[in-house]
Amino acid sequence: MRILVQRVREASVSVDGRVVAAISRGLLALVGFGRDDGPDFHQSPAFAGMVRKLLDLRIFPGQGDAARKFHCSLQDFGGQALLVPQFTLYADCRKGRRPSFTDAGDPAWAAAMFERFVRHVDESCHGSVSSGIFGAEMEVRLCNWGPVTIWLDSTRFFHNGGTPDPVPS
After folding, report:
1. What's the rounded Cα separation, in Å, for the pair 84 and 4?
2. Which of 17, 25, 113, 131 has the most CB within a 10 Å radius?
3. Whole-angstrom Cα distance, residue 87 to residue 59?
4. Catalytic residue among 47, 60, 87, 114
5. Is there a catalytic annotation at residue 87?
6. Which of 53, 52, 32, 26 is nearest to 129 (CA)?
C-alpha cells in the first residue's frame, strides 16, 4: 500500500464537472494498493498501521513556540481528510516511455480495499473524511500548504507483521 500525503489549505475532487468531495485545512491522501497487498490486505496489521500512520503524522503547526514546527497530527490539529484512489502510485517507468501498471492491485479487489480504508480512517478520525470515486476520471484540485508532501509505503514500515520496522542508524 502506498499513500502520497499532502498537507493542504483546501482540496477537492470533481467528476464530470461536479464536485464530489471537498475539504478545508487538512490532508489530501492519494491511496494505492499493490498487487502484492492482495485481497486480504485489510486483515493485515500493516493495513491498520497505515491508518494510524496517516492520522498520527505530526505535520501540522502547534501553538506559541511550536507555531512554525511540525508539532500536531491531523487529529490534534482538528483537520479534515480527503482520500483519493490512485493506482498510478504503482507505475513502473523503468522500460520505455509508457509506464507499466502491472504492480498495481487488481481493481476487482482494490475498489473494496479502498472503501475499507476510507471507512477505517473515518471511524478513527476526529475530523470529517471525504473521498474520491474509485475508477472514475477525477479532477483533483489542491492548495498544498508548505508545501508538505510525504510518501508512505507499507513495505517500508511494516515488514515485521505490522510492527513498525526499527529506524536504521
Report:
1. 10
2. 113
3. 25
4. 87
5. yes
6. 26
d(CA 124, CA 120): 6
The grid coordinates of residue 108 equal 476487482
Residue percentage of the chain with pLDDT more than 70: 93
- 55-111 pLDDT, tens digit per residue, is 999 999 998 888 888 999 999 999 999 999 999 999 999 999 999 999 999 999 999
Q: How confident is the model at residue 168 (pLDDT cuts 50, 70, 90)?
A: low
Contact 75, 19 (CB under 8 A): no
Chain centroid to CA 3: 4
Q: Chain-centre distance of CA 127, in angstroms?
A: 15
pTM exceeding the 0.85 threshold for the entire prediction: yes
Find where cell 475499507 sits.
116
Please indicate whether residue 88 is annotated as part of the active site. yes
